[in-house]
Specification:
The structure is a homodimer. Chain A folds into 2 domains: 47 residues, SH3 type barrels (Roll); 204 residues, Alpha-Beta Complex (Fumarylacetoacetate hydrolase, domain 2). In chain A, the strands form 3 sheets. In chain A, strands 1, 2, 3, 4, 5, 6, 7, 8, 10, 11, 13 and 16 form a 12-stranded mixed beta sheet that branches. In chain A, strands 15-14-17-18 form a 4-stranded antiparallel beta sheet, with no helix packed on it. A two-stranded antiparallel sheet of chain A has the order 9-12. The radius of gyration of chain A is 17 Å and the shape is globular. The relative contact order of chain A is 0.23. By secondary structure, chain A is mainly β. The interface between A and B is large, with 41 and 41 residues.
């Protein structure tokens, strides 16, 4: 099942996408819902971001190919940081260019896990029951700002600007990461195409391990990390992150104010 | 004015502390309030944590004495990370010992700024209008975990465990950091006593600069960083952070599950 957030008249709502038709629901995917019978064609959807999560956790160095290329060791445990919830953007939202001198800004196409049920110190075998589903993500990063101070890598700042966490277009509840891959294109040219099977810590393992560090709440997002092919974006660039079985998340860098 | 959160019968509420008397209010400090006339003595207060913020930002290397002692350069800009909102604890809450092997855990007594009005790219001269007030904080840190992986300092993880962000006991709206100091005691023995005038980036400057990185929301918390005197805690230790003009935040490390 594909969940999305959109406008229904003046009201923001959850909806279900089936065969290019969007049907709004009363309620939420986590707490129970009822279909309303109100349907519209996918093309007419006014997309909205997911409800703002309490936490966006994001992985560094979680793919073998990226580690090999960059000379990073395989980590003994998941290495993660937090993106500010105010960085969340939805499908179609512009990604604002930060004010001030932050240097070059890069896309990072990723798989996102969306938590459906509170998880505290669970085992990987229990993780499926705590995951609502999966989405595409663009973990936007001010790559020069990240290392500008040699004494302190500025992960949270470089990745936390408003609009720097694009997640969408839908949350697919039936997605199986095992055989899937992530493709990122910039203005139509494919720049990343990597298999999710290359993760050091696959999704259920991540949910379990991170739930021992912090209590995961419904709506929380885990970005699984990116692989090779990261490059800076020019203002005006359209970045699309596609995962077969989920869909394509599309955002323009520098297209205006955040949604 | 000193704001606090407490129970009023079965209901959690905002209240005002005056002369050791607590009076509950309808409403909130940010959106308007009315006194209820329901009063009780301070000693009978059943304390609650502040409402969970959307973000807890925390400073590294913001005090001259700590920089001098540790050989850190004066930073050109505020160096900050995020603590998970789920790490928030209130006055009197136990700080749980993390499960698993995280190594030694230290207290860090700090000044907390609590945001009262949304701030996006403001100037320091405007900051006062966006600050609700100030509180004491204990920015608890798993100091060995922080550097356990040589390739990636785990700031968010080492400081993000449930209960690792104690803030309280009250939010003082009239506090002036200029002449004040922070004292941290462990089981009654003073371990930190440093002046807030030693900050590289004082509170209004922090609010302004951080508001250019991320939109600050009402309730968001900025921890101003700590100075010298940080030491590990033993389970059972009572840590008290006192700032004259605000009060004393008291928590026991390892006292049970988080509130």
């Amino acid at each position: 099942m594909k969940w999305l957030r959109c406008m229904d008249g003046d009201v923001e709502t959850w909806a279900i996408l089936e065969d290019d038709v969007v049907e709004t629901v009363d309620g939420t995917p986590c707490d129970g819902h009822a279909r309303t019978g109100r349907r519209h064609a996918l093309a007419g959807t006014r997309w909205r971001p997911l409800p703002r999560p309490s936490k966006i956790l994001a992985l560094w160095n979680n793919f073998g190919a990226a580690a090999a290329k960059n000379g990073w060791s395989r980590p003994a445990e998941p290495l993660w940081f937090l993106k500010a919830p105010s960085s969340l953007a939805g499908h179609g939202d512009p990604i604002p260019v930060p004010a001030g001198d932050v240097g070059r800004v890069a896309y990072e196409g990723e798989l996102a896990i969306v938590i459906g049920r509170r998880a505290r110190a669970i085992d990987a075998s229990e993780a499926a029951a705590h995951v609502l589903g999966y989405a595409c993500a663009n973990d936007v990063t001010a790559i020069e700002l990240l290392g500008r101070d040699p004494s302190f890598p500025q992960w949270c700042r470089a990745k936390g600007f408003d609009g720097f966490g694009a997640v969408g277009p839908v949350v697919e509840t039936a997605f199986d990461p095992a055989g899937a891959s992530v493709r990122t294109s910039v203005d139509g040219r494919v720049r990343q195409d990597y298999p999710l099977s290359d993760m050091f810590f696959p999704p259920h393992e991540l949910v379990a391990r991170l739930s021992r560090d912090v209590t995961l709440e419904p709506g929380d997002v885990i970005l699984c990390g990116t692989s090779v092919g990261v490059l800076p974006m020019k203002p005006g660039a359209r970045v699309e992150v596609t995962i077969d079985g989920i869909g394509t998340l599309s955002n323009v860098y520098g297209g205006g104010a955040a949604g």
